[in-house]
Amino acid sequence: MNTLRQMDPSQLSLGLAAILFAIGVAGVMFRRNAIVLFMCVELMLNAVNLAFIALSRSIGIEGQVFVFFVMTVAAAEAAVGLALVISIFRLAETVDMKNFTLLRW
Amino acid sequence: MTNFPIVPLLWWLFAALAVGGALGTITRRNPIASLLFLVLTFFSLAAIYVLLGAHFIGVVQVIVYAGAILVLFLFVIMLLNLGHDYQSDMRGGFWIVAGFLAAGLIGFVLWRGFNTPGAVRQAGAGVHIDAAVDTLNAVGAIAQPLYRNFLVPFELTSILLLVAIIGAVLLAKRRV
């Protein structure tokens, strides 16, 4: 119990952010479903947000302001990205990345 | 009882839920199961934000991320009818190895960077945030720097959202 109490949650949160970001990267590499890829990108954005929040405790409240902006950009990115997914689904009848070879070298 | 370490215990609980949800997200084959695991992760992250003293961001995380963005994902999955009759979309062989390597490398680099002594710490400054929350309350503490020092980026955000709305409608329309 003593060690648990002495650990600093903001320092631990930076480690958690690293783990979540790595899981997001692994998801982008493992999956082919375009929507799941977007979810993994959102996961990485959230890991970055967590790092901002954890650092804002030691550096300043501006970290939370930056999280606010990151959330806005994430909302815009999700809207445009999902519109792209819908539009490409109309074209190819699938969201599996293996069928999107038009630009493949 | 006042010495009972409730904050670290809750932190570990929600951190375990967040990591478990993230692992579920990248391993479930059904996109809807993936999405619900991601909702679990985002709720746990909201709880961790509150534990770290960012109350406003925690609430916004629940409303915007779990409430709006993930529901948008759910709408698209249901619109495209991907929730059933799905096939496995896991890549094989080379991609699995490359994925583990990339994730391990990035996680290791971030972990080392965050834990370098003196790189990120200015111990005790967290007290300022708690003091600001006490005097200005949770919304005012973030609103003051947002409207004083970041006013132009904040206004530009509205243009970004407008462009995103128009772009999304234009892209998803059947015929342009």
User: What number of structural domains do the residues of chain B give?
Assistant: 3
The counted number of beta strands of chain B is 0
Largest β sheet strand count, sense and barrel closure of chain A: none
What fraction, in percent, of the residue positions of chain B are helical?
A: over 70%
Q: What's the CATH class of the largest domain in chain B, please?
A: Mainly Alpha
Using the CA coordinates, give the radius of gyration of chain B.
21 Å
What is the topological layout?
The complex is a heterodimer of chains A (105) and B (176).
Chain A: H1 2-6, H2 9-30, H3 34-59, H4 62-92
Chain B: H1 6-27, H2 31-51, H3 55-79, H4 94-115, H5 126-148, H6 151-172
Helix pairs in contact in B: 1-2, 2-3
Question: What can you tell me about this protein's structure?
Answer:
The complex is a heterodimer of chains A (about 100) and B (about 180). In chain A, α2 (about 10-30) packs antiparallel against α3 and α3 packs antiparallel against α4 (about 60-90). Chain A has helices spanning about 1-5, 10-30, 35-60, 60-90. Helices cover about 80% and strands about 0% of the residues of chain A. Chain A has 4 helices and no strands. Chain A has a single domain (about 10-95), classed as Helix Hairpins. The mean pLDDT of chain A is about 85. By secondary structure, chain A is mainly alpha-helical. Chain B is an all-alpha fold and about 180 residues long. Chain B folds into 3 domains: about 1-90, NADH-ubiquinone/plastoquinone oxidoreductase chain 6, subunit NuoJ (Four Helix Bundle (Hemerythrin (Met), subunit A), Up-down Bundle), CATH 1.20.120.1200; about 90-120; about 130-175, no CATH class. Helices cover about 75% and strands about 0% of the residues of chain B. The radius of gyration of chain B is 21 Å and the shape is globular. Chains A and B meet through α2, α3 and α4 of A and α1, α2, α3, α4 and α5 of B.
